[in-house]
Design a protein that fits this description.
By secondary structure, the protein is an alpha+beta fold. The protein is built from four helices and 13 strands. It folds into three domains: 91 residues, Beta Barrel (Ribosomal Protein L25, Chain P), CATH 2.40.240.10; 83 residues, RNA Polymerase Alpha Subunit, Chain A, domain 2 (Beta Complex); 39 residues. The longest helix is centred in the C-terminal third of the chain and has 38 residues.
Amino acid sequence: MEKYVLQADKREIIGKKVKALRREGKLPAVIYGSGIDPQAITLDTKEARQTLKTIGANTLVTIKIGKKELLALVRDVQREVIKRDLLHIDFQAVSLEESITTTVPIVVEGEAPAIKLFNAVLTSGLDELQIEAKAKDLPDSIVVDVSELAEIGDHIQVKDLNIPGEVTVLDDPDEIVFVAAAPTVMEIEEEVVEGAELFEELTEAELMEGAEEAGEEADEEE
């Protein structure tokens, strides 16, 4: 397991005064949990930004305050609305043996043959899983191979997933994660287009027929 370390300093400045820290390139943060009192800290904004680009929500990060090292998870990241600049980070200190309940994203792997063979639509029932595991066993994601979805209606349920033995999934085992669904919406759209085109053809024919009849009536009157 790769080790990610963020250097931190204790922070005395709180409230609106933290704007001055941000102008100096420092990022306000707080760390709490696992038998410690909540502690206000500052990080180097550039270093924190680079680390956040690399790690996932369940990646363990070492917060080093002086000589003290705390293992933690990123629990909340606040950003500026427009520019998306970092404003604040919440860390939860944990121990490697501590059991944690959290969510992990589902990542698709492979390609479902039903998409190519039958124009199926890969529909997702879940974007993430609720799991419980020790901090040292937390996965960054759960990979789902969809290459076995060969026909319309083939599906993958939670109980079909390849889950590490140290991780417990809390979602309903019968809940569908992915299904190769029939392209009903596309078919309906094609039928509507074909019907519209037929209607236009009929309308044009009726107009032409009406014009011809009007012409004949005019000729008779003359």
